[in-house]
Amino acid sequence: MAQEGLLGHSRHAILPKWRPADSAASGMGTSLLRIIRTLLPSWDRATVWASALVGLGLGLWGIADPSAWTDEIVTLDVAHRSWPQLMELLGHVDAVHGLHYVLMYLVGQAAGVSEFTMRLPSAVAVAVAAAGLSWLGRLLGGPRLGLYAGLLLAVLPTASRYAQEARSFAFVMAVAVLATGAMVKALSGHARWVAGYAVLIALLGWFNVMGLLLVVAHAVTVALRRPGRRVLIRLLAAQAVGITAVIPLLILGFSQRSAVGEAPPVTATTPYNYLTWLLTPGQDTLPTALKLLLTLTALTAVALLIARRRKTPSLALAVGAPWLAIPPLLLLGLSLDQPLFAYRYLLFCLPALALLLAAAATVLPRPKQLLLALLLTPRSPYPTSPYASRTAGTGTPPPCSPHCGATPPPGTESSSAAAGAT
Fold first, then answer.
1. Mean pLDDT within 173-201
2. DSSP state of 355
3. Is 10 helix (H, G, I), strand (E, B) or coil?
4. How far is CA 251 from CA 64, 209, 245, 256, 331, in A?
């Protein structure tokens, strides 16, 4: 049977019939047909590309407008340094951001150092995350779940906001999505994905050590799925190898901990504020009623998903729920001793929220799917770009910047160029 194309017709139907005059022409026609079939995307690949293009387009919209602020200035400064200077810096401070700084140094060498060139890799990372979530959603529940999840992540304001920041958090989110996909493939018995899973866990930690909290969520998923002994041993070994590869960074980072700024202490409103931040980073500019509506809509959708779990792909719940809940709970627990709960550290949980909301939409009737989409439609807190949450073009720091003279909220950066970025 011919594979369905983007317009709902078979690929044979949209291609002109080839009637060769001789065998040579027939061979050429067959080769050309094979090439065209290869280039024409299947529906599954089309959903992945659609999510990536939407995420990239929204990330690039007005990407050079906001002025660089505190921690972005650190990135620009690092990219301007020579290689020996960069290595000397990482030996004394900010080793935990070393991989990102090296990448930005290479980008600066290739394309020059500017706000645009330093932010562009983050926009690409968000596009990769959206495409990866579309692929993951297809693995967990089919093409419709993949399409909904990828597009939802692409349009969420928090994703677009970090697509326009020259920091490492968009990279962490992208690697988290890919690592989760590799875990799902390995959990399904595909042994060749185990090595890739170990590498992605290591990358996750090297981009940001807080990303290793995802490994605990993966462990919960594995426990819920109860795989065979051989699969379980492979997954545990991959996680152990990935974490072991990050140990040198953990040791060096611990020795540099005095240069890291503390997050504000955890309060009773921290979980609510964190959830509203996941839905839109401009929480300080949104009316309370709108924040409450967004939060209640998301919570209702997740509750509906749980209530209709028999109609929901079980693997989607087993992957999405621990991914969304376990890392914040662990970080909350760690913050009881030393304040560490900065929202940006948990940006890699945003795809889990998008996945669960998309899964909720798939179990709803069509009219209610539209209502859910309208309620979750991104609201732009600033006029400069569709979803950016920074003040553009004036040189004025954003409302949540440390330049404001007040303690920055947990979702923002808190370091200086002198002390290094957190």
1. 94
2. H
3. strand
4. 36, 11, 11, 9, 19
